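JOB MANIFEST
job_type = single_chain_structure
chain_count = 1
residues = 370
[input]
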Amino acid sequence: MSNDRALARIDLGAIRQNARRLAAAAGRAELMAVVKADGYGHGAVPVARAALRGGAASLGVVTAGELRQLREAGIEAPVLVMGPLELAEVAAIDGCDVVAWTPDFVERAGAVGRERGGVVRLHLKLDTGMGRLGARPEDIAGLVEVAAGTEGVEVVGVMTHFATADETEGPNAGFFREQLVRFRARFAEVKECFPSARAHAANSAAVLRDPGSSFDIVRCGIALYGGDPFGDDPDARGLRPALSLHSWLAAVKPLSSRDSAGYGRRYRAPRATRIGVIPIGYGDGYARSLSGANVLIGSREVPVVGAVSMDQITVDLGPEGEEQVGDPVVLIGRQGSARITIEDLARVGQTINYEVTCSLSTRVRREYVE
């Protein structure tokens, strides 16, 4: 651990392995590795390089800044910027694809392309039920008409975004199929005007749930990092978690029965015990909602007790044991035969595994291993 309060260790071999797994599941479709939000907290640049070595054909980001980060690192692979962009951003970036869903944006992108003496490559986004970005069914014909008549743009892709691909049970389980049917029909209409445009809709959940949703490109994020898109055990789907989170015991002290630990006295010792203090907290991305989660010390699961503070958490070590200051602590990952997954933490925090890794702050140093 050196002098680190907390350390996130990223296994780039796991990223490559997961990329190969997803590429195989996608069949003939190309794999786009989604590295937005600093590679879901793993580090966009090293993750992008590992994913490309593992078989990804392109990269997906959301902002112009994320694109620049990749280019400045010397990564020349095709990149799709999926988020909304201002005209100045479109003019400032080149050598990438951008997403369009309004005639106005298409026309403005065309002006940029003409000024450059080339074209802006567009992916037309269709809203088949996500209800966020994308052209609604009644607006698609107008969008296609403008795109076809605008010099300076080239439509190279047509895309949509699934709202419930990760829900295989419950009232929303069938909505994935509804969106798939809608997209197939709409894409067929758009392809009449743009026969070379490629279709993409599938995220990690869709690829693993229904290979028939893969079309020409699949956009995979969470599974690339070894997280299970359904919130289950990643091992069961052949995914290898890439991130482990480590810290150490900074203090061990006795606590008498009914003594408290932490803000608000949320924890009152039910018996005489020992409390361990670990230098990580919500300032590092270990959320307040994770009180009640477990950490691993000496391959033993011990519970986080009391309120998670900005810089520290407390754990109940029990009345007996051999834990000492300086002992290594695993908050995510394996220690001996025991393990804690991001899915475990997501269940405790009543959130999703995506948020667990994306929340890790820059105060947590990243270390890359093969």
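[summary]
The radius of gyration is 24 Å.
The chain has two domains: 12-227, 243-369.
exit_status = 0
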